[in-house]
Amino acid sequence: MSDLLYLDHNATTPVDPLVRAAMLPWLENEFGNPSSVYSLGRRAAAAISSAREQVASLVGALPAEIIFNSCGTEATNTAILSAIAIDPDKHHIITSAVEHSATIKLCEYLATRGYKITWLPVDRSGCLDPAKLESAITTDTAVVSLLWANNETGVLFPVEEIATITTRRKVPLHLDAVQAVGKVPVSLEGLGAQYASFSAHKLYAPKGVGALYVNRRARHTPLLRGSQEEGRRGGTQNVASIVAFGKAAELAQANLLSAAERVGRLRDRFEQALLSNLEGVRRNGTHEPRLPNTCNLTFSGIEAESALLLFDKEGLCCSAGSACSSGSINPSHVLTAMGIKRDEARSSLRFSLGCKTTDEDIDRALEIIPRIVAKLRSLLPENGSPVHMAS
Ligand code: PLP
After folding, report:
1. Pocket perturbation via mutation, ligand 1, pick of 12, 70, 73 by most ligand atoms within 8 A of CB
2. What is the pTM assigned to this prediction?
3. Is the CB of 199 under 6 A from ligand 1?
4. Ligand 1 midpoint to CA 99 (Å)
5. Is 38 exposed, middle or buried (0-12, 13-18, 19+ CB in 10 A)?
6. Which of 49, 128, 131, 219 registers the highest number of CB atoms within 10 A of its CB?
7. How far, in Å, CA of 204 to CA of 124, rounded?
8. CB–CB of 217/48 below 8 Å?
C-alpha cells in the first residue's frame, strides 16, 4: 500500500480514518435496527438523524429532503422514475450525451418503453449550451436530468442557468451531483432543482451508500416500497455506512475550500508540467469552471489501456474514461461527444487527485508518466497506430 500512487479519486476514494472510527461502533455493539422501539434501536435511529443533518448541511438542503439509499445509481434511477411518474402522459426526457451510465442506461431502457430521449450535445470544451436545453423542452417533457460535474473531464455544467430554465418552463430537474459534492460548493436551497443524487464513496466514506435529495415541494415515488425513510425508500437502513456518510459530509464541509484550493494547485502543477514538457499532450475539458481535482489528457500515439497496465506495475492508478468503462476498448462516450476523434479518445487518461495527494506524489507521477509514454511511443509501428498490449 505504501508505494501506491492513487490518482483515481473520481472512481472511488479511500475511507478516511475518522470516518472509519465513526462507523465502527455501528458494526459492533450498536447493532440495533433503527426501526426498533427499544433504546438500542432508538440510538441507531438517532445516529441516522444526525447523519441526515450532516449530509443536508453539506448540500444546502433540509434534513427532511435527504433520503438515504444504496448508491448514486439508485438515487439517479429513483429521481428520473419519480419525475416521469408525476405526469404519465408526458413521454419526453432531456439529458446530455456525456452523462454517467446510471442515467444513460436508464434512459436507453425508457426509450424501449416509449419515451423519447433528447441527448443534448456538448461543445469541444465539454460544456452544454443552456439555449439548446431551452429549445429542446416541449409540453411533453417529463424531466430534465443533467450532471452537475462530469466524472471524466471535471467540467461543471451551468446548473443555475439550467435550473432557471426548468423552473420557468415548469419541468422537474434532476442533477447528478455525485462528483460535485465534497469537491465544490453545492447549495440546493433555492436552486430550483427538484432532485439531486449523491454517493458516499466519492467523499471518503464506504461504497454502497448514497442519498437522494427530493425538494420538499416535489413529488416522490419510491423505487423500493417499505416503511423505512418515512416510506420513501424501503429496506432496513445501512446504519454504519450512513453514519460514515454523515461523518464524511461533516469533514468535507469543514475542509472544502482549503482542500479545493490545495488540490487545485497540485492539479495545475501536474497538468502544466505534462503539457509543457511532453510533446503531443492535449487537455480535454477546457471549459471553466471545472472540478479542482480532475485532469483529462490525450497523449498522442499511445493506447490508454496499455498505459494503465504499465502504470499499474509502478503503483500508479488512474483511469481511461470512466471507471465503469475501464477494461473496454470502446473510446469514452464523453470524449467522443466532445468531438474528439475515436483514436485520440482511446489515447486519453483521467487523473483525479484527492485530499491526501501530496507534492511528492505529483513529483513521482511526473517521473513515471513521461517515461511510460515514451516507452509506448517507442513501440509505435511504422504506420503510427498505437500498440495494444494484452493484459
Ligand atoms: N454519477 C456520477 C457522475 C458518477 O461518477 C458515479 C460513479 O462513478 C455515479 C453517478 C454512480 O454512483 P455509485 O457508484 O454510488 O452508484
Report:
1. 73
2. 0.96
3. yes
4. 10
5. exposed
6. 128
7. 32
8. no
pLDDT, tens digit only, all 391 positions of the chain: 449 999 999 999 999 999 999 999 999 999 999 999 999 999 999 999 999 999 999 999 999 999 999 999 999 999 999 999 999 999 999 999 999 999 999 999 999 999 999 999 999 999 999 999 999 999 999 999 999 999 999 999 999 999 999 999 999 999 999 999 999 999 999 999 999 999 999 999 999 999 999 999 999 999 999 999 999 999 999 999 999 999 999 999 999 999 999 999 999 999 999 999 999 999 999 999 999 999 999 999 999 999 999 999 999 999 996 444 455 568 999 999 999 999 999 999 999 999 999 999 999 999 999 999 999 999 977 655 654 544 3
Cis upstream peptide for 130 (omega within 30°): no
* Minimum CA distance residue for ligand 1 atom 9: 72
C-alpha distances out from residue 9 to 152, 179, 317, 319, Å: 11, 10, 9, 10
Find the angle CA(317)-CA(373)-CA(357) to the nearest 5 degrees.
35
Catalytic residues: 324
Interatomic CA distance for residues 155 and 292, integer angstroms? 10
